[in-house]
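REQUEST ID: PR-0412
SUBMITTED BY: lab tech R.K.
PRIORITY: routine
TASK: structure prediction, single protein chain
INPUT:
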Amino acid sequence: MTATSSGPSTNGAGELAGPLSGIRILDFTRVLAGPFATMMLGDLGAEIIKIERPGKGDDSRYSGPKANGESTHFITANRNKKSVVLDLKNPEGVRVARELAAKCDVVIENFRPGVMARLGLDYDALREVNPGIVVASISGFGAYGPLRDRPAFDVIAQAMTGAMSVTGHPDQPPSRLGVAMGDLAGGLYAIIAILAAVRERSVTGRGAAIDIAMYDSMLGLMHYYLTDYFLTGEDPGPVGSGNPSIVPYGAYQAKDGDIIIAAFQTQFWRRLCDVIGRPELSRDERFATNDLRVANKAELTQILEEVLTTRTRAEWSAALDEADIPNASVQKVSEVVVAPHTEARGMIEQVEHPIAGTVKMTGRPIKFVGRDREPLRPSPMLGEHTIEVLHELLDYTEKDIDNLVASGATELGALPVEV
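STATUS: complete
OUTPUT:
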């Protein structure tokens, strides 16, 4: 934490409101990768000041399903944030942004490379007003490299890093991961980098410039696929729900749908053979080791499914659980949200939005044992906190704010979004 921070805040019980309480983040991000990162940091207690353009705000405010006209995509990714309207094409808007950066610990943005430098808001410019500032930039391909200036979205990152080549089933068209991992991976790596830089600053007093590429982030998740290629020289293909190196592992057809079985380790494999009533398979030379089961995967899959299709997913799951064999029914979202374990882990939470009403959303995956979590705050209306932030953080008077409005650098109030 730097001298610019407000210091840790507490909840009503005198406990820290979150482990990042006292960290203030100036958020220039929009759509998903950046807003996901700042959402998580806000969940952990950081103060998030989201800068939005006049009239429109974040592009995601008018995309996706609507609740009373409000985008649920925006509501979900922008909880626990404050909204300040600034026109960064207006010199006065940029001046205010610099003043805010001087009062913050972290700046995060996901414009194309070079935009922040042209605005005078990049790391070199901001450290002049705040030597301890951490500036995290998320872009499609990073700040350097031959693809630096290309636009990118989630599907681009998935396609160009090989992820789509191993997703889906053989002899089928390329398939994108249903979860937007190109975006989300960039957000997750940004969080890790920001926390590391803030920790380093607590020792050295120096800030840092962070360069996160969606390309790098998605490629980082390819992990062992690259190592396997360097070892074998062969391109991996689509693996469906399985794994090319371990068997049994993946989805198998039961009587009423698919069930995942992960019984590749010796003890699990032997138990599986007993559970399905085929103990002799564990002694079959074709399936004696994992390598042999991989080599004879098609034959083994046919044998397993001949048995598995005789009973339902629930029946097999109960039997497999009894034998302590890793398994899972392939569940739809409608099944996941009412699952007892989802409820027990608090993974569905809700906020009361002033227009959208009660909105349910994914809960917070990070838990701190023995701590109660603060209630989620709804996503802000466009410009909802402009006056509050300018007055309380920058000591702007009413006249100062009126002059800023007159210059066209800002708009006031909880403004409707112009679609």
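NOTES: The chain has 17 helices and 13 strands.
REVIEWED BY: pending
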